[in-house]
Design goal:
The protein is mainly beta. Helices cover about 10% and strands about 60% of the residues. The N and C termini lie far apart (about 55 Å).
């Protein structure tokens, strides 16, 4: 029993020590990958069980998260019913680009693009964070077209006050984009003396 524990400890030490040494030799860091599974079941039987599988990979300022939703098929086995892939890339210290693709699964088990969203977030010198998010969806012929644009600005509106302005634009009939709605939200951080 002692020999087994020493061997396991030696293997764990080797796996933990090897990346640290390789990092010092000047080689590029290897991508880090994690995954998780969340399974939902309902004892009352009112709703169908589902399983969500998430895989995350990070390397060189780039993160890719793939999330699949699985539901039981007619044979009782879990089958993928939807998939979302989100890629986030840091561009310098003040900008982040994100692309999210949402796929549905047809009756033959093939992935079909439902929407794709591209977002550019920029931190401006005055402390304002500005995000422009374009959502595209395929038309009946499968060509991607802009279905919505959302512009969000988060800024300081005074001491302990944060203001978020969100404007959504949608294409009109025979028009480019027009403003569909605008929301302004203000958050004030209260003092702990008020409790």
């Amino acid at each position: 029993m002692v020999i087994t524990i020493r061997r396991i400890a030696g293997v764990v030490f080797w796996f933990a020590f090897t990346p640290a040494v390789m990092g010092q030799t000047g080689k590029a860091p290897q991508p880090r990958s994690t995954s998780s599974v969340v399974e939902r079941s309902y004892p009352g039987g009112g709703a169908a069980a589902s399983r969500r599988v998430q895989t995350r990979t990070e390397s060189g300022g780039r993160e890719v998260v793939t999330e699949t939703t699985e539901t039981p098929g007619t044979d009782g086995r879990f089958k993928v019913s939807a998939e979302t892939t989100t890629e986030t890339v840091r561009v310098g210290s003040k900008s982040v680009q994100t692309k999210r693709d949402v796929f549905g699964i047809d009756s033959e088990g093939r992935r079909k693009l439902v929407t794709t969203t591209q977002a550019d977030q920029e931190n401006l010198p005055d402390g304002t964070s500005r995000t422009v998010e374009n959502t595209l969806a395929p038309d009946l012929n499968g060509r991607l077209g802009l279905s919505q644009r959302q512009v969000q600005e988060i800024k300081s509106a005074g001491p302990n006050v944060k203001q978020t302005d969100t404007t959504s634009y949608r294409p009109g009939i025979n028009e480019a984009l027009r403003e569909a709605d605008r929301v302004q939200q203000t958050e004030r951080q209260g003092s702990s003396d008020l409790l």
